[in-house]
């Protein structure tokens, strides 16, 4: 069947194939586009061959393309949509709207498309362009699990003045009973199924599950009213470190730590209503709270291995006292003592002749003072005043973190953590294989199983500690660029300021934010 002809060639259709028979060479290729627009059902498949044939007279017809159907429907691979293609001229479409509509309905039925069929204005259809004719209903993912925890009072010291005395207060110890509610998880919910264009149901994904983060030695999970509830195994003090809830055993001391109590060493949190007398020590795994308004004078050592320390009064160290915490230290004032905090060191009023070390050292920016001694931080030092009018030597130092070394340590610890995780998977697999036949085991085999369980628990605890160390190192790295010393009111002459390898000694009263700008200290 001849579709088109002129003096140069004729175009023929046979069994959905399109051929050209050249009679005379010289027809311009660009003019062939006009013929294609007039006959949109022609789809070229060999452009190079067409170009050749337009310039050569041949005795036979050469295949150059295919003959498209007038109307066709194309279904997406995921069966969620169908597109309509009309390979007719716009004039033809406008003149044959009803017949095209009828044909579309037949094609939808032939392709078993029953869901999400759209009303399409056929007169607006563009020749050879896809028009969405059916759209499935996608599945909706269920709600993610919702986690909530016991809300602990913010650990932020408050300085109150009543005209007679200054009070340095904060919410520090939060006691609970065994079985107390610590948090809960509302489970991830099922989603809403979808429907493809064939009317078939599509399963919906559940919402994302989230774990409750807690210390398994001091808390446990239990299913209650369709929720996973977190409860305390013991009576004690609730603590939260790096997103993990734990309950520490609590040792309350009504009076002082001294001759009557001896030195205190406790696997939990300690609250002392009085003070720590000269020469005595308190060491605890958890938080330490010393609530006597007179503070501490001449104590030997106050140390929290994993928690924070709060001293309501001041510290008169007499060059003997060391206060050390893995987390934060909160104290009213410090005289002649040595304080070391893994995180923030918060001082309400002043530090006099003391050595301070922390990630950040924060002295009240309204009237706080650092006079004499040395303050060394990794990130930030904030105070209202530093030094004094007598030009007492005072050192403010930011020891910036070495990024390259920190990254090496992080990578090393991460490889250790990965190895531990692989070990845990193997141990869990061993236990899972044994549990179904546990009733057949001998005493010796049961003992071996118990050893495996203990090894798994120990590995999990070590892995959790390592994971916390990695997160802390990464957090430290993120804060490196923010390193600064901020003196809000007066930095007196004699104050030594150092950030990284850059340093200076002030020779006049100044204030402001001291940091590295363009490689130099901006003093």
TrEMBL record:
Start and end residues of each Flagellar Assembly Protein A N-terminal region domain: 71-241
Pfam families: FapA, FapA_N
Coiled-coil stretches: 446-483
Keywords from the UniProt entry: Coiled coil
Domain of life: Bacteria
Name listed for the protein in its UniProt record: Flagellar Assembly Protein A N-terminal region domain-containing protein
